[in-house]
Amino acid sequence: MKLLNLFTISFCLLSVLLSCQAPVEGVKLLPCQAFEEALNASPDAQLVDVRTPEEYAGGTIAAAINMDYHADDFKTSLDQLDKEKPIFVFCAKGGRSGAASKICKELGFKTIYDLDGGYTAWAQYKAN
User: Fold this and answer.
1) Which pLDDT value is given to residue 2?
2) How many CA atoms lie within 13 A of 106 on its CB side?
3) What pTM, to 2 d.p., does this model score?
C-alpha cells in the first residue's frame, strides 16, 4: 500500500515538473497586465492565439489571429508573419505558447511576448 502511494505521489510530481515550460532566452513571459500594456504600446503587434479553432471560437483576445499549434502547417504559417514586428502569443495556460515562442525564436522573430497563464489567466484578469 505504501509503495503504491509513493508511486502515485512520484508520478504526480513528475507530471507537474514535465508540464512546466522552461523559459526561452529572448522571450518575455508577461503576466496579463504587462502583456496588455505591451500589446497596447505596439501598434504593429501580431497577436497569435495558438489554441485549436474550437478553443478560439469559445473566446479569444480581440484582434488575435488563430494559428493552431497542432496543425501540420503551424510553423509554415508562423514563418509568413513579419519577423521585424513584435509577436504576442498565447494558448490556454502557457504550454503551447511556450513551445510556439521557442519556434518564433528559431524562425528569427526579434521581439516575442508570451502570456503567462494563457487565455485562462486573461479571462480571469478581464473578469476582475
Assistant:
1) 57
2) 9
3) 0.82
